[in-house]
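Supplementary Methods, section 5.1.

A reviewer requested that the exact input to the structure prediction be made available. We therefore reproduce it here, unchanged from the version used in the analyses.
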Amino acid sequence: MKKISLFLLFAISALTVNAQEQEKLTDAHVSNYRDWSIGLGFGNSFLGGELSSWEINGPNGDAGDFNFGPTGVLTVSKYFNTVWGVRFNGEIGQMKGDRGTNLPRFETFFINTNLQASINLSALALRGKTGARKGTHLVLLGGGFHHSQPDYFDAAGNLTELRGTQGENWNNLAMLTADYNFKYQLSKALDLDVLVGARYYLGDNVDGVGQNGVTGNGGSSSDVGVYTGVGISYNFGNKSGQKTNKKVAAVYGNPLDEIYGDLEQIKSDYDKLTSDDDGDGVNNLMDKDNSTPENATVDGSGVATDVDGDGIPDHMDQDPFTMKGAKVDADGRAVDSDSDGVPDNVDQEANTPEDALVNHQGITIPTDQGLGAAALPAVYFGFNSATVNDANIYRIANIASVLKAHQDLKVRLTGYTDSRGSEQYNKNLGERRAKEVAEQLTKYFGIDSSRIMTQSGGESNALAKDIYKVNRRVEVQPVK
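The structure derived from this sequence is encoded token-by-token as follows.
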């Protein structure tokens, strides 16, 4: 615990001392770096065994030959942070060797595959800033497998049988690897690589000769290979999903920048947690819409509620009780193209004549069939309210239009409530709602009060179970 406290004190002190030099710290965090890299390289592979690729002097004092072994390399790297990562290496090429003039020699085609842990020595030095260091030094340690088909030639140049098949068998050996990689930043996405690697083969037959000098027989000493080459690597990927066009590879970062970034992120989150810019009661950290109007009701994520799901937030919705699936206008009112009081989404007669009486499906009811089957639009109310809102004025207007077209028609208004509240209270509230609609018809639309009867249904005759908003209504029934 004491060590952790000292480390945190050191980090905070470093942050204070270097504050004037720092860029935006959250951008310096490793989650913003390019954290994947793919590279291609080309170079030479040497072998140190009974038959070596490079001998200064042969056993008889004669000069050895330099044998170039062309090798291509594919690397795929994943950086977990600025210090640690993993790399997959695939190598394919050729090795040659002998022990001097007029002595046996070998040639082999080989494939190496290995997985390595990557350590960024430059990052461990805690020097430089993100993007400022142009070069970095990596050490890679791991292991893998070697596959080769050696051909062994005697001093006379004759191909000698290897295990009786003249090289048709594959050598399959495990190996340990140790690499050094100097990377130089050409751009934010491209690096120049200088590669040097050692391969310790757990076997003694890479060159087709065992320690005792007999073709195809293994000895107690393992062969060793060396690779040198250059390459180009492309850096990509980003943990946070942000655009990476301004970000560098993680290997050019500094672990202290990660600490700075974490501290800044904590401070930023704390500031958001204690502030609420739009005053909707949801702090900025959790608020998905930080610009909701003052009168808007919001959910737990700070997004304005939309009770009827019509795409119009409740604070802008002039009819918060539209049916599911109904097409609405910009004010949240269900579209009724022929103005018959039935929304288009349930209207089975799209072009009802003006002033026609329709049923609940929008179909015209002939006057000679009587009016008992007619279904005039219901008027809906908010919780514990007997006030008609703007959207429901249009429904009352439709009712008035039918009454004016049929002067002998009378209507019965029945007020209903949801199930919350006492039975007596709901009975009274239903009556108030019915009388409110009656008053609107007489006061604003000139309908004679003698043609309107009111009654209360209270909480009875619920249209839907537990969907309170559709149960708070006044139903209109024609009376002969």
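Residues 272 and 334 are 39 Å apart (CA to CA). These observations are discussed further in the main text.
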